[in-house]
Write a structure and sequence with these properties.
The complex is a heterodimer.
Chain A: H1 2-12, H2 18-30, E1 66-76, H3 79-95, E2 99-104, E3 109-116, E4 126-144, H4 145-157, E5 163-173, H5 188-196
Antiparallel strand pairs in A: 1-4, 1-5, 2-4, 3-4
Chain B: H1 7-10, H2 44-48, H3 57-67, H4 81-87, E1 90-98, E2 112-117, H5 125-135, E3 139-140, E4 145-150, H6 156-175, H7 198-214, H8 221-226, H9 228-243, H10 247-261
Antiparallel strand pairs in B: 1-2, 2-4, 3-4
Classes of the chains: A alpha+beta, B alpha+beta.
GO cellular component, one term (chain B): mitochondrial small ribosomal subunit
Protein name (chain B): Mitochondrial ribosomal protein S35
GO biological process, one term (chain B): mitochondrial translation
Chain lengths: 197, 267
């Protein structure tokens, strides 16, 4: 996308004001290599440029997607299962070095329905059923694209049966190139002919 | 069963509860009258419920140690939300849905929400006002955030492209000034402007009449406009109209009117 190409150009440090470029340089040395959809990279150490010798890890040149927040909402019928799952997800996040911002349990929702007890007549005798849905919400902060992909795959594969999950990803991006300056400044003559005709 | 055996090899993946493999004295179920819950042998309740025996803390640590090679670090220069906002002003929010059912697809997954603060875009005064008029309810004045929810196309990537296209079009259209924009009336204005308003006319007419009855030499409108009492009155009226009625605004208006009309008697 345009944002990714922009990030690439950012790494090369062109066409940006000076103070911003210095921040870019600072960012550059903290982020020696990025990866993306194709490859994974071990970026655990700042100064060593060479990746650990893990044959499955491959590095790609494309810039990293940045997620400001990842919100996992887990829904289930059994509270004990959700509690165990929350313990597992929080421990996995801590082990992978992801900051867990907040873990809260929204109140449960009960859906009730009233049906006739008998197949034929007996309107006064009914039976009531209810479905209880318990929720747990896990909010993670500041993830890179590859870390998010790894964590989500691990956590989603171990989702127990009967439990559903919604993952809300908030991605942050730079303003694309074509919105920096209004295009009317650069095309005066074309605009005039259009207006006249 | 040996005490030091490796549990992650007994339950490497999610599996049903096997009472012979799990050496714990678990009982589950509704107890018989005067009795205890049924034991684990042949207990259907224990088999039905999903168990986390394959995800004990040592097993999780082992898995994460193997996965850590594939993770990258967050750039330490972006440690706070304000810095993220400053360098990466646009926020794209997407939702993924995971559930078991006849189909893994969820039609709500194609919705994309685009949020951007207008202060981060390169807009001048006229462009900002025009953009706010164009988007209408999608702009929140308190937080200065423009939120666009796109669910027009069937695929998420298409919706994202459309969102960026919309933002581009809005931005460029707001910089254009059309011929009919000069017909903007006072009702269309977003904020109150004192110059050429009825309040200015009334104040100046009153002052001119006062001066005429006192038979002072002709003072021009420009002198009156530049005088301090009229400036005070102008500021207090603008504050009242734009910010609403507060204690300080109303008292400021009272003081300025008293000075304008030269009334000292009232407190």
């Amino acid at each position: 996308m345009a944002a990714r190409c922009l990030w690439r150009r950012l790494c090369q440090g062109s066409s940006f004001p000076v103070n911003y470029a210095s921040r870019v340089m600072q960012k550059q040395c903290f982020l020696p290599n990025f990866d993306l959809v194709g490859g994974r990279f071990s970026g655990s150490h700042v100064h060593t440029e060479e990746p650990k010798t893990n044959p499955l890890v491959s590095i790609s040149d494309e810039p990293e997607i940045l997620y400001r927040r990842l919100s996992l909402l887990v829904k289930g019928h059994d509270k004990a299962v959700l509690d165990s799952y929350e313990y597992f997800a929080v421990l996995a996040a801590k082990e992978l070095g992801i900051t867990v911002e907040k873990v809260h349990r929204p109140p449960k929702k009960i859906e009730r329905l009233t049906l006739l007890k008998s197949v034929h007549i007996y309107k006064k005798h009914r039976v009531q059923y209810e479905m209880r849905t318990h929720y747990t919400c896990l909010e993670l902060k500041h993830l890179t694209g590859s870390t998010a992909a790894v964590y989500l795959e691990y956590v989603e594969r171990n989702l127990p049966e009967g439990v559903a999950m919604e993952v809300k990803k908030t991605k942050i991006e730079k303003i694309p190139e074509h919105i920096r300056e209004p295009v009317w400044d650069t095309l005066p003559q074309v605009e005039e002919t259009e207006v006249k005709s | 069963m040996a005490v030091d055996q490796d549990w992650s090899s007994v339950y490497p993946t999610a599996a049903a509860f096997k009472p012979a493999s799990v050496p714990l004295p678990i009982r589950m179920g509704y107890p018989v009258k005067g009795g205890v819950p049924p034991p684990k042998e042949g207990n259907l309740e224990l088999i039905k419920i999903p168990n986390f025996l394959h995800l004990t803390p040592p097993a999780i640590k082992k898995h994460c140690a193997a996965l850590r090679d594939f993770c990258t670090e967050w750039p330490s220069a972006l440690d706070s939300d304000e810095k993220c906002e400053q360098h990466f002003p646009i926020e794209i929010e997407t939702v993924d849905y995971v559930s078991a059912g006849t189909s893994i697809r969820n039609p709500k997954a194609r919705i994309v929400t685009l949020r951007v603060k207008l202060s981060n875009l390169n807009l001048d005064d006229h462009a900002k006002k025009k953009l706010i008029k164009l988007v209408g309810a999608r702009y929140c004045k308190d937080t200065d955030v423009l939120t666009i929810i796109i669910d027009r196309c069937p695929l998420r990537r298409q919706n994202y492209d459309y969102g960026i296209h919309l933002l581009t079009v809005l931005y460029h259209e707001s910089w254009k000034t059309e011929a009919w924009e000069s017909e903007k009336t006072e009702e269309d204005m977003e904020e109150y402007i004192w110059e050429n308003s009825s309040s200015q006319r009334n104040a100046l007419d009153t002052l001119l009449q006062i001066k005429a009855t006192e038979n002072v030499s002709n003072v021009t409108k420009e002198d009156l406009l530049a005088s301090e009492v009229v400036r005070n009155y102008r500021n207090s009226v603008i504050a009242l109209k734009n910010e609403g009625e507060t204690e300080s605004n109303i008292s400021q208006y009272k003081e300025s009117v008293k000075k304008l009309l030269n009334i000292q008697a009232l407190p």
